[in-house]
Specification:
About 35% of the residues lie in helices and about 20% in strands. The chain contains 7 helices and 5 strands; from the N terminus they run αααβββαββααα.
Length: about 180
């Protein structure tokens, strides 16, 4: 346990203990299972912005904590796995700031008098503003299944979906004025 890792847990004694004994709040959060899987298979585990509930000091209740971390197998000279190296750092502040920024963007998009939407770079988590629903007549539930594909103007379907797929795969920005069918 290096000093930076120890800072996550205050004065809690970690050295020389099994992970489950030193950090009992990790039970039921999938960490013990990933440690076991890395130890058994040798396959590293890497995760970003993982939400865990950690107790940051002796006697404190676990609190939501976001971490970027990896579990890497440690090998001996005969290529046998002897342990798991855990490397990670806390990113709670960054994650919360990003969430606040996303909420602010949604508020701005809701206030625009045009149909607007936004999504993650991979095309997931599509947000549509209220004007999209007023114009199209589809519900939020329908939009989560069919999205805007179902209301694209027939003359633009092929071109728009090809460009959308390209942007989704490459992470390039997708910005396009699109004709939509009205409800």
């Amino acid at each position: 346990v290096n000093p930076e890792y120890q800072k996550l847990f205050g004065r809690r004694a970690l050295v020389g203990k099994k992970v489950g004994d030193a950090l009992p709040e990790l039970q039921g959060q999938g960490i013990m299972e990933t440690l076991d899987r890395v130890y058994q298979t040798g396959e590293p585990y890497v995760v970003t912005e993982k939400l865990l509930y950690l107790s940051h000091d002796t006697g404190k209740e676990p609190e939501p904590t976001y971490l970027n971390f990896s579990h890497q197998p440690i090998y001996d000279s005969e290529k046998g796995i002897t342990g798991v190296l855990v490397f990670g750092y806390e990113v709670t502040g960054q994650v919360l700031a990003k969430k606040k920024s996303e909420e602010n963007l949604k508020r701005i998009l809701e206030s625009l008098p045009q149909i607007t939407s936004a999504s993650a770079a991979d095309g997931s988590d599509i947000f549509f503003n209220k004007f999209f629903f007023e114009y199209s007549g589809i519900s939020r539930a329908e939009a989560s299944v069919t999205g805007w594909n179902s209301i694209l103007h027939p003359d633009e379907v092929e071109e728009v979906l090809a460009e959308w797929e390209h942007c989704r795969k490459t992470g390039a920005d997708f910005y396009k004025v699109i004709r939509l069918k009205r409800k």
